[in-house]
Specification:
Dna Ligase, domain 1; 6 helices; globular; WH_DNA-bd_sf; transcription regulation; iron
Length: about 150
């Protein structure tokens, strides 16, 4: 079973448990993002979807993305205005993203202590954190390897 298939099964189960609809369009958007491996922009998703569903329009994609983000199945890469599948949708704490500037590879980290510390510091300042995005841009191990 591929990682994308495993993620789709987990998403179906999670949506069923929560009593929310995992429609065919939502499923396909998640599948396209999961198969990509790096960040995928909304209009790239629309291009891929429109070849399969003639009625696919930007609101269709954005509604699906909003649902997937709300369910913790997809993360928005703020710096690229792109989307990546969540590696551990059952994880409810903050996350951090390692983004390779050369190949676009994205890896998700779950360093809860960092997220908790930032939230605590913000609270001390009287600030209510609604969303936390931590992105680290650099080169992945493969892109750092010298060419053969």
């Amino acid at each position: 079973m591929t990682e994308a298939n495993s993620l789709l099964l987990q998403a179906e189960s999670q949506c069923h448990t929560r009593g929310v609809r995992f429609t065919p369009i939502r499923r396909r958007v998640l599948e396209l993002i999961a198969e990509n491996g790096g960040g995928l922009k909304a209009y790239d998703l629309l291009d891929k979807l429109s070849t399969e569903h003639a009625a696919a329009r930007p609101p269709t994609v954005y509604r699906a993305l909003e649902f997937l983000i709300d369910q913790g199945l997809v993360h928005r890469i703020e710096s690229q205005n792109a989307y990546v599948a969540c590696a551990c949708p059952e994880h409810t704490h903050g996350f951090q993203l390692l983004i390779c500037r050369q190949c676009g590879y994205v890896e998700e980290l779950h360093l809860d202590a960092i997220s908790d510390e930032l939230a605590t510091l913000a609270k001390r300042q009287g600030f209510n954190v609604e969303r936390q995005t931590i992105e680290l841009l650099g080169l992945c191990q493969q892109c750092r390897q010298p060419s053969a």
